[in-house]
Amino acid sequence: MVAIVTGASSGLGLSIAELLRSRGTQVVGVSRRATSDVSGDASKRETALRAIEAAERLGAIDLLVNCAGVGIFGPVGSYDDDAIAAMIDSNLIATINFCELLFPRFKEHGGTIVNILSTAALIGKANESVYCAAKWGARGYGEALKAEAKGTKARLIAVAPGGMNTPFWPELRLGFMDPDDVAATIVDAIERPVDISELVITRR
Question: What total of structural domains would you count in the chain?
């Protein structure tokens, strides 16, 4: 199996990439950091094309995990143009960007797309208005992909995790989940032969 994982340099994306590798999947990690397999902005078509080229050198691509994301929080009225653009680009446009390039081939040849959303894609949250907007947009895009995937070889999994202790947050948060545990649930779903189209992952 050959996979592309965006947001792969830290947090949940890193946990997913490492777990996939440990189970024999060849992974091309994408992030803004120079230490990634492919360094660049996941919302840019040029970055996605370089990632696909790198993955194709390993074999046929059959898994895409869209995990790139950024969070900037505060009350309505506190967001400037840069903050809004950063969240829309990272949480929504990056997902669309990679799906636009890989979904058509997955429909024909087979492949799985995992879109990492958030519980913020399911319910509105105070001080998270723009983040919710981006995640709801990604969820809506994914639902449209599912409709187009019917009768094809493409498989879609939407994942809505609750809070995790990752670099997304500046300090450790009590009661938040370990990203390694969340990654294990996601990778298990990918590998199961049954159809799992949606996962909501929260702490017990």
Answer: 1
